[in-house]
Give the backbone structure.
Amino acid sequence: MTFLFLSSGLFLGWSLGANDAANVFGTAVGTKMLRFKTAALIAGVFVIIGAVWGGGGTTHTLGKLGAVNALAGSFTVALAAALTVFWMTRLRLPVSTSQAIVGAIIGWNIFTSSITDYNSLITIVSTWIVCPVLAAVFAMLLYTLVRFYLNRSRQHILRIDMRTRIGLILVGAFGAYSLGANNIANVMGVFVPASPFKEMSVLGLFTLSGSQILFLIGGLAIAVGIFTYSHKVMETVGGSLLRLSPMAALVVVLAEALVLFLFSSEALEQWLLTHGLPAIPLVPVSSSQAVVGAVIGIGLLKGGRGIRYRVLSEIAAGWASTPIVAGIITFVALFFVQNVFDQKISERTEYRLSEPVIAYLQSQGIEDANLGNWTERTFINPLRLQSRLRKTTQLNEAQRRTVIESARITPLYMAALIFEKDLDKEWFTSAQWQALQMTIGKTYTYEWQLFEDLQAKSADWKFKEDTRLNKSYNKELQEKRDFLVMMFRVKPAPDEDEM
């Protein structure tokens, strides 16, 4: 059953490979500098590498938009996004997979009455504007530099041709890596909260986490999509929008790869923070928007001549409709999955402002006399609790979010068997591990109770001050906390009523 649910993620990965491979090698194939089979092989290998070893950063951001916490829900969200992408691919349009999955997640949030994190949504949507503009700027700068170099060096045309082909291969490999690292969140991100996989050692050489195993499966699906169905869209990107010279094609791929890398590299983010520079948000951006932006950038540099604006308008229309279509398909599909096929599309979650929660909130500096009006009342819908807080308290948006998160009932049992079989001692510091062992056999009603207990036993479980330099540390600590909740959460009984 687990792998049946994952099939929609594989379909989405296949659709992404069929559509977005054009953004990596479409210009190279369209200008006849590389054969399709060569381009597909290089793209397939490096997209898998990027997905497995570079896909963690963007997945975290997408997960905050909406935590799809049941496999049937994840299946439906991924299927709706995949159908949207596949339909656009049939129309030979380089659609945005990022927009499709965002629209599908919001559809799930609406159907399940879950709260949409609008801060994350704004961050993601803003990249839909920044991404093509940034790619256009990169392309214009790179094209100007390359043209200046060629005019000064006066190389023979055969040497230029050879170096251009080599450059397309190298830049294409970099682009495929960046595509896998940035867009694997679109393919498998919705399955991470409900991941069925555990950590696995590969031949004793390295270890793959449960999320990385998901990313590997998704990367393979993308590679298959590249080999089997990406040729048509490559033709659209490679020649229909603007006829490109081989050198311009190289510049377009490099500009697109740089944009994807900027928005997916945790190492780059940490380097920027370490040197006191503003960090770039790790967000799954649209490779389609990046490559189209780069092509338009070169077109504008040439005075706008040769740009096929009709094709551009069709692509833009596809971008605008993608999240709406994906959201509608998701909403309708969830109704059938839940009511016709009787599948759980979300975990039942209750919220209760008990006296311990009120005391905890006061320790966090959140106080309001009206909070006590809802003591011991149980809410099964976070939106209803949010509505009551808005009407009856003076709390701001951030404080209301903290109240809701603190009131969420998450029963935890620190089972000794899980410590023995499923926890990697090396992932934790010595102090963290010692504190964890002291919780064996304990139960908690709210997840914050576990971490209050751990923090009392070791300062290593405390977040550091929210500064740029501490961002990486706090992010890793949050990943450990999320993992513990996933492992020790007491699952509801199979016959428990659904939402």
